[in-house]
Amino acid sequence: MTLYFIGLGLADEKDISLKGLELIKKCESVYLENYTSVLGCSVEKLENLYGKKIILADRELVEKKAEQTILSDAKKKNVAFLVVGEPMAATTHTDLMLRAKELNIRFRIVHNASIMSAIGITGLQLYKFGKTTSIPFIDDKFQPETAYNVLKENNSNKMHTLVLLDLRPEEKRFMTVNNAIKILLDIEKKRKENIFTEKTLCIGCARIGSENQMIKAGKAKELLELDFGKEVHCLIVSSEMHFMEEEALKLWHV
């Protein structure tokens, strides 16, 4: 009996690898992790392709109830744990893998494309990216400045920054590029360290890997005026660029 961590890629049901598809068809239980990202297609389309009923796995199920669900099933039968993008890109999935190991459950990883590599489409060189950060939804009691701090650190090292944006599929809430820019500008107004201003060069990305992906490069103020459409969005803040990066980025200028 095996627990298969299977990456689905970034866009739709057709991004899965042949290896991943073959393994899903062997499994008796199929879970879909649906809190770190989402595909641009319905669960029904996945079920039609796989010929399997899919169990949606939210954060609570994966992080707090896996012993009673995913891991319990994997002791008795083959189980697929499906992840949008690359299955080992998130710490929460590494934790599940370690818990499987502790319970002597055999596991196998089937890799796929990740946003961490797909952003190469922008023309920015992947090895010139620094620490990746994220921006969560904020409210009156929760206004973290982690993303701003990471930007400051990466800028000092002349490295680009990938900013992942919060999503809450169960609430149908997905942070946009515009939301993220506004949050960073608000932090700048408070701290006045000239880390992220209206003139900062950014690349706004939406639905990377899909046929209707959107990539726009420009000053933060310019991107604020654009509608990036449906989820999932991310933001890139560039640092010093090689001439080839500058040339490639012209493809996406506002």
Can I get a quick summary?
This protein has 10 helices and 12 strands.
Estimated radius of gyration: 19 Å
Major sheet summary line = 5 strands, parallel
Shape: elongated
Note poorly predicted spans: none
Total of DSSP H or I helical runs spanning 4+ residues: 10
- Give the helix level as a range of percent: 25-40%
Quote the distance from N terminus to C terminus.
52 Å
Task: Describe this structure as you would to a colleague.
- By secondary structure, this protein is α/β, with parallel strands linked by helices.
- The protein has two domains: 2-113, Cobalt-precorrin-4 Transmethylase, domain 1 (3-Layer(aba) Sandwich), CATH 3.40.1010; 116-252, Methyltransferase, Cobalt-precorrin-4 Transmethylase, Domain 2.
- The chain is built from ten helices and twelve strands.
- It has helices at 18-26, 43-50, 59-64, 70-74, 91-102, 115-118, 146-156, 177-191, 220-223, 243-249; strands at residues 2-7, 29-33, 54-57, 79-83, 106-110, 133-135, 161-165, 167-168, 173-174, 201-206, 214-219, 233-237.
- The strands form three sheets. Strands 3-2-4-1-5 form a five-stranded parallel beta sheet, sandwiched between helices.
- A hairpin with a 7-residue loop joins strand 10 and strand 11.
- The chain is elongated and about 55 Å long.
- 38% of the residues are buried.
- The mean pLDDT is 97.
